[in-house]
């Protein structure tokens, strides 16, 4: 099973999703950005590093959100999702050709990768049940 990390970044009631750029695997599909932990790296360290590398911003982990397991071709993917706080920097996508800030209820209108879809559903459900 392949373990991958992903970030939930929020701004003004919206959540960030990113579209994978042409020329890389799953090009044109949307995801919560993140990536694979390197040897000896915790998932929390991995997501902070990946967001710095992929989006050019410094973040800190504020909470563990949850996980999903999905089959992607011949591989089983375990997606560990963390809520992050944007500390500094300007968004400069590397592996993505587009980023969108999306209202939670619109997340499932995006062509999300399979591991990201259950996370989107959990996030929407949580947002709908939180008191305003």
Overview of the structural elements:
The protein is of the alpha+beta class. It has one domain: Nucleoside Triphosphate Pyrophosphohydrolase (Alpha-Beta Complex), CATH 3.90.79. It is built from two helices and seven strands; from the N terminus they run E-E-E-E-H-E-E-E-H. It has helices at 43-55, 116-129, and strands spanning 2-11, 14-20, 30-31, 34-35, 58-72, 75-88, 96-102. Strands 1, 2, 3, 4, 5, 6 and 7 form a seven-stranded mixed sheet that branches. The longest helix has 14 residues, at 116-129. The radius of gyration is 14 Å and the shape is globular. The N and C termini lie far apart (39 Å). The model has no long low-confidence stretch (mean pLDDT 94).
Which descriptors apply to this entry?
single chain; Nucleoside Triphosphate Pyrophosphohydrolase; 132 residues; alpha+beta
Count helical runs.
2
The Rg value, from CA coordinates, equals 14 Å
Distance between the termini: 39 Å
Strand content bin: 35-45%
Reading the helices and strands in chain order gives: EEEEHEEEH
Summarize the biggest pleated sheet. Answer: 7 strands, mixed
Portion of residues within helices = 10-25%
Morphology:
globular
What is the CATH topology descriptor?
Nucleoside Triphosphate Pyrophosphohydrolase
């Amino acid at each position: 099973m392949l373990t991958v990390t992903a970030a939930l970044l929020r701004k003004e009631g919206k959540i960030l999703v990113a579209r994978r750029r042409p020329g890389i695997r799953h090009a044109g599909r949307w995801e919560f950005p993140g990536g694979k932990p390197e040897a000896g790296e915790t998932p929390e360290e991995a997501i902070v590093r990946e967001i710095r590398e992929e989006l050019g911003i410094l973040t800190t982990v504020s909470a563990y959100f949850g996980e999903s397991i999905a089959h992607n071709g011949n591989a089983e993917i375990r997606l560990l999702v963390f809520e992050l706080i944007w500390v500094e920097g300007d968004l400069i996508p590397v592996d993505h050709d587009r980023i969108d800030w999306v209202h939670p209820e619109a997340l499932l209108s995006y062509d999300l990768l399979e591991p990201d879809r259950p996370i989107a559903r959990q996030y929407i459900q949580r947002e709908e049940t939180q008191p305003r």
